[in-house]
Specification:
It is built from 11 helices and 19 strands. It is of the alpha/beta class. The strands form 4 sheets. Strands 1-2-4-5-6-7-8-9 form an 8-stranded mixed barrel. Strands 13-12-11-10-14-15 form a 6-stranded antiparallel sheet. Strands 16-17 form a two-stranded antiparallel sheet.
Length: about 425
C-alpha cells in the first residue's frame, strides 16, 4: 500500500496480466468521478503528502493487524486532520492480515472505535498478505458496513483471486485494486494495465506518483464522496469539505478550513499549502516549506511576507491557522486523545511544538498522555528559549527536535550557511 512496503510482485503480476485497453463506462455523473488522491502510511509523516494541489481525497492508514498483532500508525489522526484542513476528503484503511471470524472481530473491535473519518466514509481492508478466506473477508466487510462506514476491499487481483472468491465479494462491495507496469513516476493511469474486474471503485495506478514514491489512485465511480456532503475542492486550499459527522481530527481540520477566506493581518500564523509551487516573486517553493507554519511579517496587496523565511507568498497559497496569536479553534485547553502527537496538536492550533511544550512545561516532545489537559496560553513562551549545539548535531535535526524549521532557526541566529554550526554554539528558538 505504501511505497515502503513490498508490493508482492505487483509489477510482475501486472505484466503477466496485461490486457487490452479498457473503455470505462462511467455511471451517472458525480463530483468525484475521475478524482485522484494518494494513500498514506507513517512514511508520509504527520501531515501526509499530495501529488498535486488538485488532489481531492486521501486514504490514511489507521494501523495494521498481523494475525493477532496490532501495529498502530501514530500519523493517522493528524493525517486525517490535515487532509480536511486542505479541503480534501479523508478516508481510512486498515492493513488487514487475518483469517477466520475471530481474528476479524479482534481487528475490528480494536480499530473501529478509533476511526477519525466521518460516519459513512470509506473503511478499506488492505488484504495483500497472509492466508485470507472468503468467509472472514466478507464477514469483516459486513461488520464495517454495520458500523456505519462504506466498506471496500483493497488488494492485487492475482493475490486476491488466488485466495478468495473475488466475484462473490465484488458482487457485494466495490473493490480498490492496484496494478502498474513499473516504478516510473506517473500521475496519469495506464489503462493497459487496468486489472479488469467487476465493480472496481478505485484504481491504484502507481506507487510512484512523486519521485521517491507515493501511491496514487483514481476514483472511477464517485465512491470517495462517501461521508462528505460537499464535492471536495476544485483547487488547492479551496472549497470546504463537509463531513457528515465529527471527530477530534475532523474538528481540528475544519477549524483551519473554516478560516481560509478570512483577511490576513500582520501577526497572524499561516500554513503554506501543499499545492503551492512558486513564491509571489516567481521562484520555486522548496518542498520543505510546504505544510509548515509561519507568522506574517508584512502584507502587501495579495502578498504575504513570511517571518523567519523572508519570502513573499501569494495569499491563495496560504491557510490561516491562528489570528493575532489566538488559536484558530478558539479553545483555551485541549484534552489529549488516543493517537495525538504534540506536534499535531500544536499545528492544529497555530503554534509551534516548542511553544506548546513551553506553555505546558513539557520537556519530552514525544511523551504526552491520553486525558492530559494542554493549555494554549500562559506560562513561559518559546521565544526566549535556547539550545546548545552538541557534537554530531545538524541544524535540520535540531529544528525537528524543537518543533521549528531550519529557516526559522537560521534567521533567528544569523546563520548564513545552514550546514555550518559548531559544538557549544547557543541557538535561540
Amino acid at each position: 500500500m505504501s511505497q515502503n512496503k513490498v508490493k508482492f510482485g505487483a509489477v510482475a503480476l501486472a505484466a503477466a496480466l496485461l490486457v487490452s485497453p479498457v473503455i470505462l463506462s462511467k455511471p451517472a455523473a458525480r463530483a468525484a468521478v475521475g478524482d485522484k488522491g494518494p494513500d498514506w502510511s507513517k512514511y508520509q509523516g504527520n501531515q501526509g503528502r499530495f501529488v498535486s494541489g488538485n488532489d481531492k481525497f486521501a486514504f490514511a492508514q489507521i494501523g495494521g493487524y498481523y494475525n493477532g498483532s496490532f501495529v498502530d500508525q501514530a500519523t493517522y489522526n493528524s493525517q486525517v486532520q490535515y487532509a480536511i484542513a486542505e479541503g480534501k476528503r479523508a478516508q481510512t484503511y486498515i492493513y488487514a492480515q487475518f483469517s477466520g471470524r475471530a481474528q476479524a472481530d479482534a481487528m475490528l473491535n480494536y480499530y473501529l472505535p478509533r476511526i477519525q473519518t466521518p460516519k459513512g466514509s470509506i473503511v478499506a481492508l488492505d488484504v495483500e498478505s497472509g492466508y485470507p478466506d472468503t468467509d472472514s473477508v466478507m464477514y469483516a466487510l459486513n461488520r464495517v458496513k454495520q458500523a456505519g462506514y462504506t466498506p471496500m476491499l483493497y488488494g492485487y487481483k492475482a493475490f486476491l483471486t488466488s485466495h478468495i472468491n473475488l466475484t462473490f465479494i465484488s458482487n457485494a462491495y466495490q473493490l480498490w485494486l492496484g496494478e502498474y507496469p513499473d516504478y516510473s513516476v506517473r500521475t496519469e493511469p495506464n489503462y493497459n494495465f487496468f486489472p479488469s474486474w467487476n465493480n472496481i471503485g478505485v484504481f491504484q495506478f502507481t506507487s510512484t506518483g512523486l519521485p521517491g514514491g507515493l501511491d496514487y489512485n483514481i476514483d472511477l465511480t464517485g465512491i470517495t464522496d462517501a461521508g462528505y456532503t460537499g464535492t471536495g475542492t476544485s483547487k488547492a486550499g479551496g472549497e470546504k469539505v463537509k463531513p457528515t459527522t465529527t471527530t477530534p481530527a475532523i474538528a481540528a481540520g475544519q477549524a483551519a478550513n473554516n478560516t481560509k477566506k478570512s483577511a490576513i493581518k500582520v501577526g497572524d500564523t499561516v500554513k503554506v499549502n501543499f499545492g503551492a509551487n512558486r513564491w509571489a516573486t516567481g521562484e520555486g517553493i522548496p518542498s520543505w516549506v510546504k505544510g509548515q507554519h509561519y507568522q506574517v511579517a508584512q502584507v502587501s496587496g495579495t502578498k504575504l511576507l513570511l517571518s523567519g523565511i523572508n519570502s513573499w507568498l501569494d495569499r491563495s497559497n496560504a491557510e490561516i491557522l491562528s489570528v493575532s496569536g489566538t488559536t484558530a479553534s478558539g479553545d483555551s485547553t485541549y484534552t489529549v486523545q488516543y493517537g495525538d502527537t504534540l506536534s499535531g496538536i500544536a499545528a492544529a492550533h497555530g503554534l509551534t511544538t516548542a511553544t506548546l511544550a513551553a506553555y505546558n512545561g513539557i520537556t519530552n516532545y514525544n511523551f504526552i498522555q491520553v486525558g492530559q489537559q494542554l493549555k494554549f496560553s500562559g506560562g513561559a513562551t518559546a521565544t526566549n528559549r535556547s539550545y546548545t549545539v552538541k557534537y554530531g548535531d545538524t541544524l535540520g535535526g535540531i529544528a525537528a527536535s524543537l518543533g521549528t524549521t531550519v529557516a526559522s532557526l537560521a534567521a533567528k541566529n544569523g546563520i548564513g550557511n545552514t550546514n555550518l554550526i559548531y559544538t557549544g554554539q547557543t541557538l535561540a528558538y
